[in-house]
Amino acid sequence: MGCNGLREIHVSDVTAAMKKLCVSANCNVPRETIGALERAVETEESPVGREVLKQILENHRIAREEGVPACQDTGVAMVFLEVGQDVHFVGGDLYAAINEGVRQGYTEGYLRKSLVNDPLFKRVNTGDNTPAMIYVDIVPGTNVKITVAPKGGGAENMSGVAMLTPAAGVEGVKKFVVERVQKAGSNPCPPVVVGVGIGGTFDRVALLAKKALLRPVGSHNPDPVYAKLEEELLTEINNLGIGPQGFGGRTTALAVNIEYAPCHIASMPVAVNLNCHVGPHETVVL
Fold first, then answer.
1. What are the per-10-residue average pLDDT scores of the chain (286 residues)?
2. What are the residues whose beta carbons fall under 8 Å from the beta carbon of 137, sequence distance 6 or more?
3. Are 260 and 125 in contact (CB under 8 A)?
4. 3-class SS of residue 44
5. In order of start, what are the domains of the chain with their CATH numbers?
6. Which one of 19, 31, 38, 61 is CB 3.0 to 4.6 Å from 104, fit for a cystine?
């Protein structure tokens, strides 16, 4: 502990953690996702769909055992930090340390670099997958929780935000979410995990949808009415018939995760963010 009861964390520890997380998250599909895929093999009615799911599982096994990316699109490095308010970072700039970890992880781990420096005109690859997209929450305590969630372009491009009115109600939300997945079709490499944000503001609701994807597959929103809505949406989405990799079947989504926040009395923002069946993310606590 440092002075005044603060815990000091050297930013080099953040860099080292980031380097490992970038590689591990891309190569190790979450265990709960593997379990969901295995259960889907048993329940999928389409013979082609079952074979596709088996191939997906084999792909993930090889990735885990050989330490290679489960998907060639190793994405943008999404970094979510929960920083204890009694933590003091020393030794340099926190954001620079995070980006250095991404640089080392993507370069030394031979991961595909996917960022361009200018979105519209020059579009020159930055060469090291930096800068990361960094989000920080201040929480009580003396720990730092770091989650890295590489986000590929195919699923990310299928995202959407709608500024609904309160009169749209539950049915309006369901209609937007289901139609968004239907429009996405095979593009996000189903089976997908569907992150849904409801409430907040135009910018906040998109972040809610993205954070929803960090929840384990199979978990539910602690509020029972939202948990029920998750199940209803999952059923409707799997009735679309898109199926694994778009070849038909009932396994279009493995889960629907909803996060919500208070919003203005005149508003009801809704956002959808999709993850493919890889759904990479990994967490460490310093």
1. 80 98 96 96 96 97 96 96 97 98 97 96 97 98 97 95 97 98 96 98 98 96 98 98 96 98 98 94 96
2. 80, 81, 82, 83
3. no
4. coil
5. 3-26+70-151 (no CATH), 154-278 (3.30.1330)
6. 19
